[in-house]
Amino acid sequence: MKYTGKNHIILIGWSEKSKSAIQEIFKSDETIDIVIIDNLEKSPIMEERLFYVRGDATDEETLLRANLPKAKGVIIFADQITQDNYATKDPLLVDGKTLLVATAITSIEEKTNTAIHVTAEVINQKHIRLFERVKVDEFIPTQEMISHAAVRSLFSHGVTHMYSELMSSKYEETMYEISKQDEWRTYRDAFMDLLNKGATLVADRGDLNINQKLDARIPDDAQLFIICDKETISKINSKIH
User: Fold this and answer.
1) Percent of the chain as helix, strand, coil, to the nearest 5
2) Pick from 61, 65, 70: which is nearest to 112 by CA?
3) Could you tell me the CA-to-CA distances from 193 to 81, 139, 190, 234 in Å, in that order?
4) Fewer CB within 10 Å: C terminus or N terminus of the chain?
5) Which is it for strands 73-76 and 9-12: parallel, antiparallel or unpaired?
6) Which residues contact 237 (CB under 8 A, 6 or more apart)?
7) pLDDT per residue over 161-200, tens digit each?
């Protein structure tokens, strides 16, 4: 079947990870549609606002049936079947398929002159360099993230609970993106204003050194991230809008 909606999220590849992603998306946004692309005979899950497109995600026709040009974003999960059968021997096979999917997405973006946020799961971080000719906005290096979290848990007991809380919407405190306000000239202005509202400014894009440059001017294209609870972010957003 063909999906004709827009501002949806496309999940490529069905696995327990994509199942968890669906739950996380629905918790974060109660109105957004999700389109799953996989080769399963029928939809692996039945939910309202969830749609299924059967086909090969490396094929542009399949991506167009998911209305890729109108999508809000795409997440490419590492192929579970390939991963189960070959990953221990050659993870390049898994990441190679992800690269083919990303190539097909980039081709459609160029043909339709659209920009879609693409997040890709890679098994091995060393393979990220292979994606330099395609457009992927963010990478999730599975092996490195798991290894890092496991090791940090030994040296800093309980750190994995903090990771889980920051990355999941099911906890009271989590991370949110917020736009720069006109009255904020420096990071200190933003930091103090947000602190008074019950939120903590932690980063600008991937820069986590905010506390070391509080007096630096905030660029107009800043992408600020804060930690707070849902009630606080709702109050902040209501004042912004």
Assistant:
1) 45, 20, 35
2) 70
3) 49, 32, 5, 16
4) C
5) parallel
6) 178
7) 666 666 665 556 678 888 888 899 999 999 999 999 999 9
